[in-house]
C-alpha cells in the first residue's frame, strides 16, 4: 500500500516494522519553504537487505539527497520503509534504485539522488548511484562523504 498524505499516521505512535518494502507506508508532509531550493539529506549508515540468491545479509550506507518541491518525506516513515528491506531479497542495484524511484514518485522533488555504498561480499564492493536529473544550478550540493571502499568504517 502506498499511502500518501499531508499528515502522518505513524509519527508519535507505536508502529511495527513493515514485513516488506511493498507493505511499508511512506508518508509526506508539506514543505514549509516550497519556493526555496535547498537540499535535504538522509543518511542510513546501517541499511540491510538480503541477497536474493543466498539469503545472506548485505549491508550498505545509503545517502539520499533531494531538493524538495511541495513535499518532504516524513522521517519516521522513511526509517520504517528502509528497515523493511531487512528481510527483503534483492540485488544491490535493485534496492538502491527502487528506493530512489519510490521517493521520487512520492515526493515529486525538483531533484533527487541516492548513493548506495555497499560493503563487499565475495571481495567486491558494489556502489550504486541514481539521480532523477542533472543537479539544479545554484544549489549547494555537498559531497556524499563516503570514501571509496578501503575498509569502510
TrEMBL record:
Keyword Cytoplasm: yes
GO BP of this protein: tRNA queuosine(34) biosynthetic process
Active site location: 51, 58
UniProt main location, coarse: cytoplasm
Pfam families reported for this sequence: QueF
Start and end residues of each stretch annotated as Disordered: 1-22
Keywords, in A-Z order: Cytoplasm, NADP, Oxidoreductase, Queuosine biosynthesis
EC annotation from Swiss-Prot or TrEMBL: 1.7.1.13
Record: residues binding substrate: 73-75, 92-93
GO cellular component, one term: cytoplasm
Domain of life: Bacteria
Pathway info: tRNA modification; tRNA-queuosine biosynthesis
Comp. bias regions, Polar residues: 1-12
Reaction it catalyzes: 7-aminomethyl-7-carbaguanine + 2 NADP(+) = 7-cyano-7-carbaguanine + 2 NADPH + 3 H(+)
GO MF annotations in UniProt: preQ1 synthase activity
Family statement: Belongs to the GTP cyclohydrolase I family. QueF type 1 subfamily.
Role, per record: Catalyzes the NADPH-dependent reduction of 7-cyano-7-deazaguanine (preQ0) to 7-aminomethyl-7-deazaguanine (preQ1).
Protein name: NADPH-dependent 7-cyano-7-deazaguanine reductase
Lineage: Bacteria, Pseudomonadati, Pseudomonadota, Alphaproteobacteria, Hyphomicrobiales
Gene name of the encoded protein: queF
Amino acid at each position: 500500500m502506498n499511502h500518501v498524505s499531508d499528515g502522518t499516521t505513524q509519527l508519535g505512535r507505536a508502529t511495527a516494522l513493515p514485513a516488506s518494502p511493498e507493505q511499508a507506508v511512506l508518508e509526506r508532509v508539506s514543505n514549509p519553504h516550497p519556493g526555496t531550493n535547498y537540499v535535504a539529506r538522509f543518511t542510513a549508515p546501517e541499511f540491510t537487505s538480503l541477497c536474493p540468491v543466498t539469503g545472506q545479509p548485505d549491508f550498505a550506507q545509503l545517502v539520499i539527497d533531494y531538493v524538495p518541491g511541495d513535499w518532504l518525506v516524513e522521517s519516521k516513515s522513511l526509517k520504517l520503509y528502509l528497515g523493511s528491506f531487512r528481510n527483503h531479497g534483492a540485488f544491490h542495484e535493485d534496492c538502491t534504485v527502487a528506493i530512489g524511484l519510490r521517493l521520487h514518485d512520492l515526493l515529486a522533488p525538483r531533484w533527487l539522488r541516492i548513493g548506495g555504498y555497499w560493503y563487499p561480499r565475495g571481495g567486491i564492493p558494489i556502489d550504486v548511484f541514481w539521480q532523477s536529473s542533472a543537479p539544479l544550478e545554484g544549489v549547494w550540493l555537498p559531497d556524499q562523504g563516503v570514501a571509496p571502499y578501503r575498509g569502510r568504517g
